[in-house]
Design goal:
single chain, alpha+beta, three-stranded antiparallel sheet, 6 helices, 9 strands, 46% helix, elongated
Length: 182
């Protein structure tokens, strides 16, 4: 047999009948019994962000969390777009010579340094990664490709961010995605 669970509207709290003696003079007067399954339901709903409250008749209810404001949803959407853009920028790029270069922050730093005096850079050609020596001029050409690729992604981020800022409802925001067809 399960424990008898009681609820107090005045204190907005649950009590176990078996602990009545421990509360002595602090035992609320307005307790009503709550079925065990309803108590479990309430615990799950409050764990999901709801707030415990009481109805007019004193039974426990859960008030759902408020919906986020449009501004909060917009800020979240812009954050997701920025992360997607960063993933694209650091995900590598292709040159007209059909070489694929990595573009993590370290790769970008190495590329900029190679434009000064040349040096080896990682690239993939015909599916094979190699550490290939580049002259300063070759590195500058690769850097120009990276900058153009990065600018394309940044332009897309600016366009999508503008669309987010102009949205008038959360529903409109669901249509603004990084990977949507342009």
């Amino acid at each position: 047999m399960s424990e008898t669970i009681l609820f107090s509207k005045s204190l907005n709290a649950f009590y176990l009948l078996s602990l009545r003696e421990k509360y002595s003079s602090q035992w609320p007067e307005d307790l009503i019994e709550v079925p065990h399954d309803r108590h479990q339901e309430i615990l799950a709903q409050t764990a999901a962000g709801g707030t415990l409250s009481a109805s007019d008749d004193g039974t426990p209810v859960v008030v759902p969390p408020p919906s986020p404001s449009l501004q909060m949803v917009k800020a979240q959407a812009v954050g997701e777009l920025k992360r997607a853009c960063e993933t694209e920028i650091t995900g590598g790029f292709q040159t007209p010579a059909n070489r694929h270069y990595p573009s993590t922050s370290t790769d970008q730093n190495n590329l900029v340094q190679a434009t000064v005096a040349g040096g080896p850079l990682w690239c993939r050609e015909a599916g094979v990664w190699q550490f290939v020596e580049h002259t300063a001029d070759q590195a500058a050409e690769v850097l120009a490709c990276f900058v153009a690729t990065r600018a394309t992604y940044q332009k897309r981020l600016a366009e999508l961010t503008t669309a987010v800022e102009q949205a008038t409802s959360a529903e409109q925001l669901t249509t603004i995605q990084w990977n949507q067809e342009q």
